[in-house]
Amino acid sequence: MLGGIAFQLGSSIIPMIAFENVAYFIQPAVIVLYSVLAVEYYIRYHKRSPIGDRNKENGVQPRGEYTGKLMLMTYTLAFSTTLLFIR
Q1: What's the rounded Cα separation, in Å, for the pair 32 and 30?
Q2: CA 23-28-32 angle, 5° bins
Q3: Do 31 and 85 meet the contact criterion of CB atoms below 8 Å apart?
Q4: How distant, in Å, are the alpha carbons of 2, 24, 49, 65, 75 from that of 42?
Q5: Phi/psi at 50 (5° precision)
Q6: Where exactly are the structural domains of the chain?
Q7: How many other β-carbons are positioned within 10 Å of the β-carbon of residue 1?
Q8: Could you tell me which residue, 13 or 84, shows the higher pLDDT?
Q9: Model pTM?
Q10: For the chain, what percent of residues have pLDDT higher than 70?
Q11: What contacts 55, CB < 8 A, 6 or more positions away?
């Protein structure tokens, strides 16, 4: 988070740099990359198909319970990411 703030401050403090317009392409690309990785994580979580090695005994890795608080956090993250896209 601090890196993003510093990145934005750097582009506003030194506006004469030729790469000033690059920030307009990098920031949405980072948000899209985050969104793709988040969606991929939730798909793998609900399909029970993790990337890592499986347990040799029963073939399934134990996972945490998807509680109401985690569901609320998921919706909140989706909402804040949507607001970042709009911004």
Answers
A1: 5
A2: 145
A3: yes
A4: 26, 28, 10, 13, 12
A5: -70, 160
A6: 22-52+65-87
A7: 5
A8: 84
A9: 0.61
A10: 62
A11: 61, 62
pLDDT band at 86 (very low <50, low <70, confident <90, very high): confident
Listed residue (40, 46, 39, 75) closest to 63, CA to CA: 46
Given this model, what pLDDT does residue 39 score?
92
The two tokens of residue 59 are: 């073939």
pLDDT one-digit tens code per residue, 9-50: 665 555 555 566 777 778 888 889 999 999 998 888 888 777
Distance CA 85, CA 87 (A): 5
How far apart (Å, rounded) are the C-alpha atoms in residues 35 and 79? Answer: 11
Q: How far apart are CA 39 and CA 50, in angstroms?
A: 13
Q: Which sign does the torsion angle of CA 31, 84, 50, 64 carry?
A: positive
